[in-house]
Design goal:
The complex is a heterodimer of chains A (about 475) and B (about 425).
Chain A lengths: L1 H12 L12 E3 L6 H10 L4 H16 L23 E3 L13 H9 L4 H8 L2 E6 L2 E5 L2 H6 L3 E4 H7 L1 H7 L10 H9 L4 E5 L9 E6 L10 E6 L4 E9 L6 E4 L2 E6 L5 E8 L11 E12 L5 E8 L4 E4 L2 E4 L5 E10 L4 E4 L2 E4 L5 E11 L3 E10 L7 E11 L4 E10 L5 E10 L2 H9 L4 H12 L1 H4 L4 H15 L5
Parallel strand pairs in A: 3-7, 6-8, 7-9, 8-11, 9-12, 10-13, 11-13, 12-14, 13-15, 13-16, 14-17, 15-18, 16-19, 17-20, 18-21, 19-21, 20-22, 21-23, 22-24
Antiparallel strand pairs in A: 1-2, 3-4, 5-6
Chain B lengths: L1 H18 L6 H13 L16 H5 L8 H4 L13 E6 L2 E2 L13 E4 L21 H8 L5 E5 L9 E9 L4 E3 L2 E6 L4 E12 L5 E11 L4 E9 L5 E10 L4 E8 L4 E10 L5 E10 L4 E10 L5 E10 L4 E10 L7 E10 L6 E10 L5 E9 L3 H9 L4 H17 L5 H13 L5
Parallel strand pairs in B: 1-5, 4-7, 5-8, 6-9, 7-9, 8-10, 9-11, 10-12, 11-13, 12-14, 13-15, 14-16, 15-17, 16-18, 17-19, 18-20
Antiparallel strand pairs in B: 1-2, 3-4
Helix pairs in contact in B: 2-5, 6-7, 7-8
Classes of the chains: A alpha/beta (about 475), B alpha/beta (about 425).
Chain lengths: ~475, ~425
């Protein structure tokens, strides 16, 4: 019993344990956004001219766009885009060649975060690309992957070393003018990860990126591009944290996945734990992310799994464009909102090719004053004969001040398609809690267990080490919401 | 284009004042016009109208049918019930001659144009003309309609039938049918609304109907709408309902006719322990466009709503279903269920856009919704064929069974049988 009590105490005392600030000198560009800043970022990164032009094109388009404000259940103060520092890098003398050369302060940060780079390297075999504020700090396991022809590096490095690939696929799935935040990202993106899986190669380890916003008043605008050739396979993990600060910080990322060849497969998992703000809704990250994958090859597959527990506001819709015949799209999501968090998340499945299939499993948990919205689109175009979709979105409400909303759009233009959508909303029954109490489980443990059971369908899709982390996260994020 | 449409309707305001100078309706018209002026017609960017483009409707200049009521003698649809109380409106005007009004039970049924001021007290109270542009338009052009008042505790056995006939022969005409039902506490009644019409090419007509139903405490009201407009007609309708404490309200919308149809049903619970059933069937062929828009507002605790909408689309028909359910913060113990099922039976362009929408702000609730889009089950077809039915017959039978799921819930035998026969003959799915 004592262990159970300890755990609860641990839970209640644990607020946001990733909320520390690392005291590292960082190099930033001046506050604000204009063409000069973009030129400066581009110059700092020694980018070729075509990329600078692309950024400027995106910026000019962004100026003509209006910030979307129409979501019915999202409210937030106006963002002053000129009051953000668009680039912050840990000040380093030179690029580290090995882990030993990385700033020890920085390494301690990552150790605190639980991603000891060395340990990861030795034990788990997960290759990690760590993005600290705006730049990628170190990429482990690079050589080993290179032997297989796999490219796994920071985006800036890819721009220098593989410009053809970047130029060919950058913006091919999420064009620079796609939406307000994607345009902003295209103009100012700082770094991110780049993955290339050649033909017929099955990536032997999970690739992983860890994102962290450290500096004050900065925004993080990373850009990830994953390209998978015919018969290739890659599983990619992404995790995020940020220090606790009173003001809101903006995170507007773009992720593009391209499954080019036949049978190419990309699995993308996210555990998003940006700082959610305190219990009164002060501070926290605005997480406005555009994620999209294109299944271009026949029988190619893209699978998104996300566990969203952090951020003051989450706005993201990882999508699949199923162009290749027989291609498959999947979306598994757990989104949790506690205190004053707001989440508006879901997916888009665009069926273009024949016999394309998609599955959507979305689990929303609302507690405190949290507002959780599922917004999804299943679109079957005229040529998508025998397309098949199954969607399930369930909501769990803990408390009477929170909200759960579902907005699924279903648009079918092909009469041989079969689309199913189911949604339910419920709360944890008093009888369920009573049953657990009677079996000797405390109320907190009972809620934890029920919530984890509710999310099981999604956790099952996560790679092992992420699944464990996700379960723990859920427990911590829910703390204080019971009773 | 939209501006032109507005000016065209503004012109009709003068026409209606001249042709139907009804003093009792004048203040309502004025209020409607003020609201109409402040509202814009929907565009494809209007979220609630995303899938329905009203441009063809707005591009057609419509006039009020000033003289046609007397000149045309339109055939009537079959009577819903032998003893039915029947109100017939031809191109918007009350046809006293062909109406059957029996008030022996204390029931008040009358024409809006001749009803006394006190009878109109609830007019424009239930329907939301302040945010719905078409409802505001209806109020702006009020000239006639039906008023049904069911006294407290009265159980009305005969079916109350309201028939809206429309006809366009030379000019394009528009009618603004308006129904006001006030059901007293503990009352009981069945209301059937029928929309029926004919056109002579190239003329067409536009029905812009509004029905307001106030269901008193513990009343049981059964409402049916059978829409069989002419193939060239436009039909926009808003049925808005307030359900009182402990009351039970049921509505079935069967949408068969019209080229561009938008049918809105809005139900709001005003008292606890009330129940509402909102069902619908839409059958589209050719290039028909049928948009179903429902809003169920659980504003108070302990209410239940059940919603089932089924659609059959063939040829290039376009169907839309948007079902909103709001559960307000206080509305604990809500039980809301919504289902939308659509059969797509052609391979040359039938389209469905489905958007169920749950917005839940209370935690102790049971809410589910489901939506399916698909074809006839291959196993079932095979089974029927193995029993000796031809493929076409088997398809017809299964499609009919799909539709009958709604039709068999209709409690007025004559209407149910008529629809059954109609659906069988419509040769669904072949």
């Amino acid at each position: 019993m004592s262990t159970a009590t300890d755990t609860i105490e641990q839970f209640t005392s644990q607020e946001y344990k990733w909320g520390f600030v690392t005291d590292i000198e960082s190099e930033t560009v001046p506050r604000g956004l204009n063409e000069e800043i973009i030129r400066l970022i581009s110059a700092k990164k020694r980018e070729p001219d075509w990329l600078l032009q692309w950024r400027l094109k995106a910026y000019r388009h962004w100026l003509t766009m209006e910030e979307p404000r129409w979501w019915p259940n999202l409210t937030y103060a106006k963002i002053d885009y000129n009051d953000i520092i668009y680039y912050a890098a840990p000040k380093a003398q030179k690029k580290p060649k090995s882990l030993d050369e990385v700033d020890p302060e920085l390494r301690r940060t990552f150790e605190k975060l639980g991603i000891s780079l060395e340990e990861q390297k030795r034990l788990t075999g997960v290759a990690v690309d760590a993005v600290f504020d705006s730049v990628s700090v170190v990429t482990t396991f690079k050589e080993k992957l290179a032997e297989l022809g796999i490219i796994f590096c920071s985006f800036s490095e890819a721009v220098q070393e593989h410009p053809d690939l970047v130029r060919k696929y950058l913006g091919s799935v999420v064009p620079y003018n796609d939406n307000f935040f994607a345009a902003l990202n295209s103009a100012v993106f700082s770094d991110g990860s780049f993955v290339y899986i050649p033909k017929g190669v099955r990536c032997p380890m999970e690739l992983s990126t860890y994102f962290r916003i450290n500096a004050r008043e900065t925004g993080q605008f990373e850009r990830t591009l994953i390209i998978c050739e015919e018969g290739g396979y890659v599983s990619y993990l992404e995790g995020c944290t940020a220090p606790m600060r009173d003001e809101n910080q903006l995170h507007a990322a773009v992720v593009e996945l391209v499954a080019i060849g036949d049978h190419a497969q990309i699995k993308y998992s996210t555990v998003q734990n940006w700082y959610p703000g305190d219990k009164d809704g002060k501070g926290g990250i605005y997480n406005f992310v555009t994620k999209r994958g294109a299944c271009r090859g026949r029988a190619s597959k893209i699978s998104w799994t996300q566990v969203e527990t952090g951020s003051a506001i989450t706005w993201k819709y990882p999508s699949c464009i199923l162009q290749g015949d027989d291609s498959v799209g999947e979306f598994y999501s757990v989104a949790l909102t506690n205190h004053y968090q707001q989440a508006d998340t879901g997916t888009k499945m665009i069926h273009v090719g024949k016999n394309t299939r998609s599955t959507i499993v979305s689990k929303g948990i609302s507690a405190g004053h949290g507002q959780n919205t599922y917004r999804g689109l299943v679109k079957v175009l005229k040529g998508a004969a025998y397309a098949r979709n199954y969607s399930q979105c369930d909501s769990l409400l803990l408390g009477d001040k929170c909200g759960a909303h579902t907005f699924p759009y279903i648009e079918v233009k092909n009469t041989t398609a079969t689309v199913e959508h189911e949604a339910s909303t419920s709360k944890i029954g008093e009888d369920q809690i009573f049953y657990c109490n009677q079996r000797g489980l405390s109320k907190e443990d009972a809620v934890n267990m029920i919530v984890n059971g509710f999310c099981k369908d999604v956790f099952r899709e996560l790679p092992m080490e992420f699944a464990v982390e996700a379960q723990k996260l859920l427990g911590v994020s829910l703390e204080g919401s019971v009773g | 284009m939209v501006l032109e449409a507005k000016t065209n309707f503004l012109r009709q305001f003068e026409v209606v004042d001249r042709a139907w100078p009804v003093p009792t309706l004048a203040p309502y018209r004025q209020q409607g016009r003020a609201r109409f002026a402040a509202l814009a017609f929907p565009t494809p960017r209007t979220e609630d109208w995303r899938f329905t483009n009203v441009a063809p409707l707005l591009e057609t200049p419509f006039e009020l049918p000033v003289d046609s009521a007397s000149t045309v003698r339109l055939p009537l649809p079959p009577v819903a019930d032998a003893g039915a109380v029947r109100l017939v409106f031809v191109n918007g005007a009350f046809d006293r001659e062909r109406s059957e009004v029996d008030t022996s039970t204390g029931l008040v049924v009358e024409s809006l144009a001749t009803a006394g001021v006190e009878r109109l007290a609830q007019l424009d109270q239930v329907a939301d003309s302040s945010s719905q542009v078409f409802t505001a338009l209806n109020t702006s052009l009020l000239c006639d309609g039906a008023v049904v008042r069911i006294p407290d505790g009265a159980a009305i056995t005969p079916v109350i039938e309201v028939v809206w006939l429309s006809h366009a022969s030379v000019r394009n005409v528009t009618t603004q049918p308006r129904l006001l039902v006030v059901a007293g506490a503990h009352s009981r009644a069945t209301i059937v609304e029928r929309f029926w019409g004919t056109t002579t090419e190239p003329a067409t007509y536009f029905t812009n109907a509004v029905a307001e139903i106030a269901v008193g405490e513990h009343a049981v009201i059964d409402h049916y709408k059978v829409q069989q407009e002419a193939a060239a007609a436009y039909h926009v309708a808003n049925t808005q309902v307030v359900v009182g404490r402990g009351a039970n309200f049921t509505t079935h919308a069967v949408l068969l006719g019209g080229r561009l149809v938008r049918n809105e049903v809005r139900v709001r619970f005003a008292g606890e322990h009330a129940e509402a059933t909102v069902n619908g069937l839409y059958v589209g062929a050719g290039k028909q466009h049928i948009d179903n828009h429902t809003v169920i507002d659980h504003a108070v605790p302990h209410c239940a709503s059940h919603e089932l909408y089924k659609g059959i689309l063939t040829d290039q028909a376009h169907g839309v279903f948007n079902g909103k359910i709001f559960v307000r913060q206080d509305a604990q113990k809500t039980d809301a269920k919504q289902t939308n099922q659509t059969l797509l039976l052609s391979d040359d362009g039938a389209t469905i856009n489905t958007k169920p929408q749950l917005e839940i702000f209370a935690d102790d609730v049971k809410c589910t919704h489901g939506a399916t889009v698909g074809q006839l089950d291959a196993d079932q077809l095979f089974y029927l064929q193995s029993r000796g039915l031809a493929a076409a017959q088997a398809r017809r039978l299964l499609t009919f069974a799909f539709a009958n799921d709604i039709v068999h819930r209709i409690h007025v035998p004559a209407v149910r049988e008529e629809l059954e026969a109609l659906l069988v003959h419509r040769n669904l799915g072949s």
